[in-house]
Amino acid sequence: MASAPQKPSAVIDAHHHVWDLDANRHPWLSDEPPIPFRYGDYSAIRKSYMPADYRRDTAGWPVTASVYVEAEWERSNALSESRWIAAVAAEHGLPSAVVAWCDLADPGAAELLAAHAAIPIVRGIRHKPAAAASAGDARRGQPGSMDDPAWREGYAQLARNGLSYDLQTPWWHLDAAAELARDLPETQIIINHTALPADRSPEALAAWRRALETAAAQPNIALKISGIGRPGIAWAQAGNAAIIRDAIAIFGVERAMFASNFPVDSLVGDFDTIFSGFLAATADRSEEDRMRLFHDNAARLYRL
Q1: From CA 145, how far away is CA 128, in angstroms rounded?
Q2: H-type helices in 118-236, by residue range?
Q3: How far apart are CA 153 and CA 107, in angstroms?
Q4: pLDDT < 50 positions in the chain
Q5: Domains along the sequence of the chain with CATH
Q6: Is the peptide bond before 263 cis (omega within 30 degrees of 0)?
Q7: Closest to 170 measured CA to CA, from 220, 144, 204
């Protein structure tokens, strides 16, 4: 592979979090015992993480804007999360956009979505639909899934409020996502964390690629390349470059973007390691293509 090119002149980090555990309750970060987590032991991030911490982690990279994604606050207080982040942004200059939370199947979803949308910094919603633990267990039509009529009724409210949808689900549910995108084409879907290709066996990766192809056939679906670490394994280009290149090849440079998922992904690598890996994996791309992946696509999709 060619050597890594120069860093881009500007970066938009399309997915990160901040939290103040002294001021706000996040059950997964505060309560005991800790929940089962895909990166294993996450005790290192069970502490406050604020813009100064994020800036320290991203030092050396020209991060000019960023996207905050909901961080699993106490769910009864979801609107307060958006309001708190808007205040943090006003004080600290980041994040630049917010992806808030709403239970799309809840009878009160329309009211909450309208309230989120009234906060200027809010651009979209993330609500993780019901998902199977493995590809073999996946079944269509489950309650709370993307097939659920009640869930879809809430989803239909996104376009009415000018909101996009961040989808975090394993790749074995991307057939449902493709149908959702086809049926409701006015809503932009942004798949989180590369659709979670945790199993790196040849068979699983082949199925992951086919699932991405199914999703990418819908023009209103984009992909965030992030969250590709594995428990107990340090983030390394050798283990992740093929994932990055395959994802870009399937979605194209116009519908893919890079994101840190910090501080969560600090469990597997520091910011420089991960973003240098993104850079090295795209060394054969033009500077214009890299700017799309590191900056321009996030600016367009999150309306920055």
Answers
A1: 9
A2: 149-160, 174-183, 202-216
A3: 9
A4: 1
A5: 11-301 (3.20.20.140)
A6: yes
A7: 204
